[in-house]
Each structure stands twice: as structure tokens, then as C-alpha cells.
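Q: Got a minute? One more chain.
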Amino acid sequence: MNPLRVNPLLAALVPSPARRRTTGAKPPAPSSPPGPPASGGRARRTVPTVVTALGLFAAARLTGVLFLALLARAEGRDTTTLLGRTWDSLWYIGIATEGYGEVREYSRLVLNDLAFFPLYPWLIRGVCALLPVSGGAAGLLIAWTAAGAAACGIYRIGRRMHGRGVGVALVVLWGLTPHSVVLSLAYTEPLLTALAAWALYATLTGRWLWAGALACLAGLSRPNGLAVAAAVAVAAGWHAVTLLRQRRASFHSLWKPLAGTALAPLGWVGFVLWAGLREGDPLGGYLAVQRRWGSAFDFGRGNLEFAGHLLRHPDKLLFTVALAVVLLALLLLGLLVADRAPLPLVVYSAVLVLITVGGSGYFASKPRFLLPAFPLLLPLAAALTRTARARPWHATLVVAALAGLSFAYGAYLVVMATSPL
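A: Always. Here it is, folded:
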């Protein structure tokens, strides 16, 4: 039996020439000389593959939600509450309904809602004003829509890098990471990833104003949204230097990259300064808020100490998995650099990894911080596509194993684990 005929994922990963070699079919002889494509032909060739990638991603995440719902029912817990009103979701809903100003004391920590960036609460408030839904339902609607938009942007980057098969594989792998359950919750990672993916795509295609505007919004969504601005700024600066070296620089060719660079960090910088003013210290106030939450950038010292403790006392599964994910991210970053990926993708991924590894704070959340770093999966997506061409059933088993791990572990994280994501 030909696996390409029964497995839609493999059919999407293997391009048509390889598919014909596998089935033994020969391409039909043209009856007439080829002419120019009909109007709209390009859209017809592209849309089915985008739909395939989005459909596989949606199927993966809906199956993950089904696993979560079954485990929640077995444990006597409400699925809707777990998806829309858990951990950080409650903070965002509170900001959306009441504004900033809540401070809680927990153990030795002082938890200030200024640690949370404002774009997601703004969107929740807007959806609640337009639709008769609760804050949790609005958060889920935004997160799921953003996850779909992110999947489309990730596919476009993967296709631009290595072809359509890799684009589909990149989306599937991103949707099956151990912590991809976060993409089904009312969290901000889907929103940041969507803005980052399309900002990076705009950067790769030279749309500097779009790149800067999307990076600005990414900077309003999460603290590590700064990585998007860094990628846009470095890419635009390199582009300008290249033009100057080639003596092709002019105002017309430079103003858009420079404008995009200036626009990119405004969201992140603006909120950090505003939060600092609220705390009475424009430059240091936001950092003080983060320190009171137990988070600080200490160049990885806290993470090394915790990793040593974990290796000596592996007391919680999620911490062990978090350590494995962080170490894997470092390896994948090295592979991304070795593959000579475009500069914006390397800078974006490197800054996300640096923030995750170099920052102290709650260790179990670090895989979630790495979820937007989808370019790290490019080497794996390329390898999976090559495997699908040469050994289709091997690729099927790999994807099935990843899916089982993702669905089971994601349900465990949300339903069973007592530590916040």
C-alpha cells in the first residue's frame, strides 16, 4: 500500500515530482505548448497548500483539546474554565475589565499586573464590547484566531526557505511541540507568534514599514516581543549597509528600512516607560516589577542553579521536560546558524533563547516562552520532509509519536499539574 495515498500529511510534505516517482506514474505529455498561466492561477496553486497546512494544524490542536477535555472530565474539572480562565488568563481578563492596578502578595513575591503587556487585554475588551461573550471566551477567540494566523505566516516562511513541503512540516511541528497546548489556551503566545511570523515574512520580502508596524504591535503583546524589533532592526541595518557598500543607497531606498527600524521598538519601549512612570521610576520601574515577581536577567545564573537542583532531585516531571526543551532549543539554534538561515530568523530566535536562558524566574514557564521561536524548527522540518520522500512510513511514525506526546503531555500540564504554565 502506498502511504502517500492514505496519509494526507505525507502527501502534503512530498512535492509532486517525488510523489510521481513513488507511485510509478509518469507525467502526461503536453498536448500543446505551455502558455502563460491564466488569471488567478497562482492563487489556485498556493491556496490548497495553505489550506492543507492550516487544516493539519487545526486538526492537531482540536485533537489536543479533545484529549484535554476527556482528562478534565475524568478528573471532574470544567474544560471551558481550564481553557479560558486559568493562571495568566485571569490576569489578562482582570486588566481587560478593571484596568491596571492589581497587586497581590504570594509567599515572598509581590505580583503586580504591570508585568503583563496591554495588547491582549485591549483586544479582549474590544471583543467583549462587540460580542455578547465573557472575558474568557473572548480571550479564547483571540488566541485561536491568532494561532491560525500564525500558522499561515509560519507556512509562508517555511515555503520561502525550502519549499511547500517544509512549510507544511514547519506548521505541523509547531503545532505538536510538547507545550503546544498553550496555543489552545487564552494566553498571549499565539498573538505574539502571529505578529512575529508576519513581521519576519515582511522583513524577508523587503516590506519594511509592515515589518516595523507588526514588530511594534509584537512589542505590546509580551516582554519577549522585543525579539521581533531586534530582528527587524538588524535586518534593516544590514540592508542599508549593503546598499551603501554597493553604492546604490538613496533616500528612496533607505527611508523605508530606517522608518521600519524606528517604528519596531516603539510598542515595547512605550509600555516599559509607561509602567515605569506608574511605579515612579520611568527607566527602572518595570524591571522592579519583574524582580518582585521573581524574574530578572542574571545571565543564566539562576537557571544553572535550578538545573543542578533538578538533576540532583528530579521531583517534578514538568521541570525535567522544561530543562530538556531549553537544552534542545540551544541545539536547534546552533543548527539554524549552521544552516545559514536568513539573518532576521537567526536574530529573532537567538534573542528569544537569550531571554529564556539568561532570565531567572519560574523555570516551568520557559518552554512556553520558547513557543514563539518557530524558526528553531526549520532544520527539523527540512529533515522530516526528506524522510517523507525517502521513507514515508518512518515519517508517519515520527509524526504519530510527536502527536501522542503533545496531546498527552499537554492535557497533563493543564489538568493534572499543580504548577502554573
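A: Residues 16-48 have pLDDT under 50 and may be disordered.
Q: Perfect, thanks.
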